[in-house]
Design a protein that fits this description.
The chain is mainly beta. Helices cover about 5% and strands about 35% of the residues. The strands form 3 sheets. The protein has a 5-stranded antiparallel β-sheet with strand order 7-6-3-8-9. Strands 1-2 form a two-stranded antiparallel ribbon. Bound molecules: zinc ion.
Length: about 140
């Protein structure tokens, strides 16, 4: 039960993103440590991952809505090792976003013993540096006071 058992993020130089007009606002907001989700400006459907057209009404109008950063683990896996990083443990997860019903975000859960991660666990966003000056939203267990 040492520190080395905690789920980690990949080192910054291992994570590179590409953006396009549909996804760039998400990454620009992340750079400002804000978690946002695209919501159809016409019918209100959240469309995450971002899509050029609303799947419900085909509208191209988007309101980028700022979220609280809270999420719930919908599903996850535990991955030991990564090419070139045999000692790393990763917990990639699909997260439900309570303030964006219907939207799901793929991210990683960090700062936790992987054996303690469970479906339904409450997590909150943090932002981790990646390549080219971007910040990647990651999630850790919500600190309960
Ligand atoms: Zn729509």
């Amino acid at each position: 039960m040492g520190e080395d058992l905690k789920a980690q993020a990949l080192p910054a130089d291992h994570v590179r993103i590409t953006t396009d007009t549909s996804t760039e606002p998400f990454w620009q907001a992340a750079k400002e440590k804000r978690l946002v989700a695209p919501k159809c400006a016409d019918c209100g459907t959240f469309r995450l991952p971002p899509t050029p057209f609303c799947p419900e009404c085909q509208s191209t109008n988007v309101d980028w809505t700022q979220l609280s950063g809270r999420a719930t683990v919908f599903s996850f896996s535990v991955v030991h090792g990564f090419p070139g990083l045999p000692d790393i443990t990763l917990v990639p997860a699909i997260l439900d976003l309570p303030d964006a019903p219907g939207a799901r975000l793929v991210s990683n859960v960090v700062d936790v013993d992987p054996e303690k991660v469970e479906i339904g666990m409450q997590v909150e966003v943090l932002f981790s540096p990646i390549s080219d000056g971007w910040l990647l939203p990651l999630f850790r267990p919500t600190v309960r006071g």
